Amino acid sequence: MEAIQIPGLPPVPPLGLGTWQWGDRLIWGYGGGYREEDVRLAYRAALKGGVRLFDSAEVYGFGLSERLLGECYRAYEPKPLLVSKFFPYPWRFSRRALLSALRGSLARLGLPRLDLYLLHWPWKPVPLEQWAESLAEAYEQGLARAVGVSNCNLGQLERVAGVLSRHRVPLAANQVEYHLLERGPERSGLLGAMRAEGVVLMAYSPLAMGWLTGKYSLEKPPPGRYRAQRYARHKARIPHLLHTLRAIAQKHGATPAQVALRWCIEQGTLPIPGAKSALQAEANAGALRFRLDAEDRARLEEAAPLEGA
Length: 309
Ligand SMILES: NC(=O)c1ccc[n+]([C@@H]2O[C@H](COP(=O)([O-])OP(=O)(O)OC[C@H]3O[C@@H](n4cnc5c(N)ncnc54)[C@H](OP(=O)(O)O)[C@@H]3O)[C@@H](O)[C@H]2O)c1
Hints:
By secondary structure, the protein is of the alpha/beta class. It has helices spanning 36-48, 64-75, 96-109, 128-140, 154-166, 184-187, 190-197, 225-229, 238-252, 256-266, 278-285, 294-303; strands at residues 17-18, 53-55, 81-86, 114-119, 144-150, 171-177, 200-204, 270-271. The chain has a single domain (17-303), classed as Alpha-Beta Barrel (TIM Barrel). The chain is globular and about 50 Å long. The two termini are 31 Å apart. Bound molecules: NADP nicotinamide-adenine-dinucleotide phosphate.
């Protein structure tokens, strides 16, 4: 089976599962249409489908995502790679803050160390270099097998890589928004530079928060103002893109979501779609089981051109 190599970690199939939904009420409505048992079943379905990487963060569900993920991890085999993130709240000033937050994540997950620990946002006022020093320390203390960042542009990535390299710690990943409606990481040169350096681009919101699954449309947007408005600037191109995704899906006996995820995989990235249920997790894992051909890629390029997306 095809695999992606995150520096310092064993290779895994090139599709993960995001757990922002697990415990988040505000954006995703946890506790309404889906709850604890549903996400547990999602975990098992993803594992069964070949997924071997799960993404969380201390802020997701105020820690509930990490707790639920840790319970699943301990209960079921085989063991996947687990990822979590440090949130640079404005009141977190000291270098020790990252290590103490990491220990909090480990306690919620019930683990002695994380596979991959990321700085969630490169936000001021604390300079990025300070958080990079803390990431190196987490690695050196054996609290994380690999470290990286999220939401960093190329300049920011280079600053972090500079600090880590002085510690001989590899920069493993940068998690950024990337999908057919958001190709900024390609336009800016970020994806190309990361490929050249062997840093993995973890593609978040690879289904554009549900818009690319085919079950929503301009007439029937996803629930909640945030998700409904999120891609308003792409309004004009969404109907044609959805039509194209459906046509390619039909040709492969797949779903529009699987085609959207497959496109991310074939761009050399690691998409981490969020899932609320076993059905969603199982369907998304299907992206590991077919390939797009040159005609499919050309059609997607026409429907979601690099310039503009
Ligand atoms: N580092 C960061 O700053 C950052 C930011 C955002 C996300 N992330 C990570 O990336 C992950 C994924 O991003 P995301 O959750 O924003 O968006 P996404 O993966 O693009 O969309 C997930 C949503 O799409 C719908 N869906 C998923 N699979 C489906 C299927 N097979 N069929 C039909 N609908 C399906 C579900 O919503 P409905 O059922 O409600 O339609 C699901 O909650 C997150 O969980 C998180 O781990 C990281």
